[in-house]
Amino acid sequence: MIGGIGCPVLLDKDCNPMFVIHDWQRQYAEALLATNPDELENRISWAQRAIASRMLQIRECVAPEVEGRDLRNASAELALLSRPVRHNRPLAKASCH
């Protein structure tokens, strides 16, 4: 594995780059996989900052459109994940009129 800090590149058997793992992707995965509720808020915050930083970076250079879409989707998912969980809230009953 080679690459800059926060951006390792995996190589195939002939030392050709296969894909890049950006810091925001690692931070996002760690937030999604966090099982300790005490760590979740920090993990989400770190991931959101990494995503915002990468969004600024790709504005200044040519980046794959797919990564921009992935950044927006990840940001939206973290916003949902960061909502406070409401326990013991009864489900609303559907009314049939």
From the structure above, extract its key features.
97 residues; alpha+beta; 3-stranded antiparallel sheet; 3 helices; 53% helix; globular
Overview of this protein structure:
With 97 residues, this protein is an alpha+beta fold. The protein is built from three helices and three strands; from the N terminus they run E-E-E-H-H-H. The protein has helices spanning 23-33, 37-59, 65-81; strands at 2-4, 7-11, 17-20. Helix 1 (23-33) packs antiparallel against helix 2 (37-59), helix 1 packs parallel to helix 3 and helix 2 (37-59) runs antiparallel to helix 3 (65-81).
In a few lines, what is going on in this structure?
The chain has 97 residues and is an alpha+beta fold. The chain has helices at 23-33, 37-59, 65-81; strands spanning 2-4, 7-11, 17-20.
Topology diagram in text:
Blueprint: E1 2-4, E2 7-11, E3 17-20, H1 23-33, H2 37-59, H3 65-81
Helix pairs in contact: 1-2, 1-3, 2-3
Instruction: Give the DSSP E fraction (strand runs of 2 or more residues).
Output: 5-15%
Main β-sheet, in a few words?
3 strands, antiparallel
Overall average pLDDT? 77
The helix fraction, in percent, is 40-55%
Form type? globular
Low-pLDDT runs: 1-6, 86-92
H/E element order: EEEHHH
Task: Supply the number of helical segments.
Answer: 3
The SS-based structural class is alpha+beta
Secondary structure: number of strands: 3
Placed side by side, the strands forming the largest sheet appear as 1-2-3
Q: What integer value in Å does the Rg equal?
A: 18 Å
Report the end-to-end length measured between terminal Cα atoms.
62 Å
